[in-house]
Structures are given as C-alpha cells and as structure tokens.
UniProtKB/TrEMBL annotation:
This is Pyrroline-5-carboxylate reductase. Its EC number is 1.5.1.2. InterPro entries: 6-PGluconate_DH-like_C_sf, NAD(P)-bd_dom_sf, P5C_Rdtase_cat_N, P5CR-like_CS, P5CR_dimer, Pyrroline-COOH_reductase. It comes from Nitrosomonas mobilis. NADP(+) binds at residues 6-11, 67-70. Residues 3-95 form the Pyrroline-5-carboxylate reductase catalytic N-terminal domain. GO terms for cellular component: cytoplasm. It comes from the Bacteria. Residues 159-262 form the Pyrroline-5-carboxylate reductase dimerisation domain. It is found in: Cytoplasm. The gene is proC. The keyword NADP applies.
Amino acid sequence: MNITFIGGGNMAAAIIGGLLQQGNSPETLAVAEINTDRRTQLQHQFGINISATVADSSVNSDIYVLAVKPQQLRVVVTENATLLHNKLVISIAAGIRATDLSAWLDNQSYIIRAMPNTPCLIGKGVTGLYALPGVNASQKKQATDILGAVGSVIWCDDEIQLDAVTAMSGSGPAYVFYLLEAMQQAGTELGLSAETARQLSLETFIGASLLAADSHESFSTLRTRVTSPGGTTEQAILSLEQDNVKHALIDAIKAAHRRSQEIGHILSQS
Ligand SMILES: NC(=O)C1=CN([C@@H]2O[C@H](COP(=O)(O)OP(=O)(O)OC[C@H]3O[C@@H](n4cnc5c(N)ncnc54)[C@H](OP(=O)(O)O)[C@@H]3O)[C@@H](O)[C@H]2O)C=CC1
Ligand SMILES: O=C(O)[C@@H]1CCC=N1
C-alpha cells in the first residue's frame, strides 16, 4: 500500500517515523512538502520519496494523508482535486469537518477524518478515526493499519466526537509535557539537578501510567493509595485542590475542544 503525505511537518514526520520503525518500506511512502528546507530535512531523516507538489510525486498512491495546517487544507485539496478523486483521503487536520473536505473534493473521494498524536513517532500514539458513509470496510482497515502501525486506534460513530478526541489526546501530549515541566521545575527549586529532576519526573509519569494501564481500578482509587493519611501526598493534593488545578485542567481541555469546533466552523465558511 503506497501512501502519500501532503505536508511533511511535525505530525506527518511522527507517523512516517512510526511506519518506518514498524518495518514499512521507504519506497511505499511519499511526501509532498512545499518547504525546501523541510524537504531536505525529511530526505535526510527518512530517505523516502519527497517532492515539492503532489503532482511532482513519482509515487502512485491510493491513499493520501492530508497533514497540512487546517488553514492550508482547502487550497491544497482543491488544487489537487483531480488526483484525489476516487482515492482514500485521510485528513489529520484539527477541526476540519469530513463533510466539508468531501465537498471540496466534489464528493468524489473516500474521506476519513483522523486525530493522531505525536507519540506516534515511537509507536505509542493514539488516534481517533471517523469515516464518512461511502468508505468501505477495506478502506477502514487500511486506515486502521496505517494509524494502528504507530499506536492504538479508536473508531468514532459520530464525527462530533473527533473534536473531543482532538482536545483530549491530539493536544494531550502538550498537557503531559506541561506537567513534566512543572515537576522538573519543582525539583530544581528543591535543590535537585535539572537532570535528576527530569529523570524523577519522567520515570514517575511512565511508572504511574503503566501502573494505571495495568489496573482495573479508577484513577482516583490509585491516587488514594499514594495518599497516606497525615502524610506528604495529602498536603500536595490539598494544595492542588485549593488552587483548583483539576478544574483548570478541565477548562483547558474544554478550551481546546471549543477551538476545534471553531476552526471547523470558520473554515467551513471560508
Ligand atoms: N502537531 C500535532 O501534535 C498534531 C497535529 N495535527 C494536525 O496535523 C496537521 C499538521 O500539523 P503539524 O505537522 O503540527 O504542522 P506543520 O506546520 O509542522 O506541518 C505542515 C507542513 O505542510 C507544509 N505545507 C503547507 N502547504 C503545503 C502544500 N500546499 N503542499 C505541501 N506541503 C505544504 C508546511 O509548510 P509551511 O510551514 O512552509 O507552510 C509544513 O511544513 C495540522 O492540520 C494539525 O491540526 C493533528 C494531530 C496532532
Ligand atoms: O494544536 C493543534 O492545533 C494540533 C492539533 C492537535 C495537536 N496539535
């Protein structure tokens, strides 16, 4: 299965890196990337087929992954509409509605909207997927195979859920890095070296996440186990509660959700 990525930025690179790591052959992957420096970088990094435009690509693909910024998507697809007709088109753009994308392609392509995340780069991504009616089971399987090669996949029945997936797991790695930054800073302020604070933060996240993944218990039960009455964690949780940190995080995810919907709305009309 030959796959062409249109746009070779951060997210395309994460998926391509993951696909190559999973043993996909470089000859089966192509990128059309407008930026010259980025093309050179991708060529060195991956050794796959790179061109400036889709039309210049030497690879015949049945599957196109749209990985440009949401604001760039409409122009890119309308310019390449003929090439994309009758093809499976997987858009990873935040907010852009599958129905709009389909209309920009004269309703002559098979559309899947996907929301992956950057841990795809190491095969640990998670992707939400939604297919427009008309996409057949074998095309859904192809999408599952591509995104499944770089992590786990979750199919959604209703496109509206993709905005929630975007706010949760699409943007989610940034929330984790933000918390890691805070933990590392606390460590250094308490006298640890930056390197030790980095390792302690990271290992704690990895260990706690694996523990939660391995457990059938709720996150709050697992948290209670760490929180000895009268102990240290209790003071930390009390401080977090006093500062409304949980609500701040929930609000942040809702802000991302609103922005995903807003991008879809604005670009639907442009
Ligand atoms: N980053 C993330 O964690 C995630 C991103 N996404 C989605 O993935 C998409 C890409 O995001 P990301 O990789 O971060 O963005 P980037 O800006 O890193 O990548 C987009 C790339 O496409 C290039 N490009 C622009 N126009 C064209 C064109 N006409 N033909 C070919 N290439 C073009 C851009 O060049 P130039 O910069 O010169 O314009 C840029 O190199 C977005 O729609 C985003 O919503 C989805 C999930 C997670
Ligand atoms: O911030 C963004 O818009 C993109 C989509 C999800 C993660 N990054």
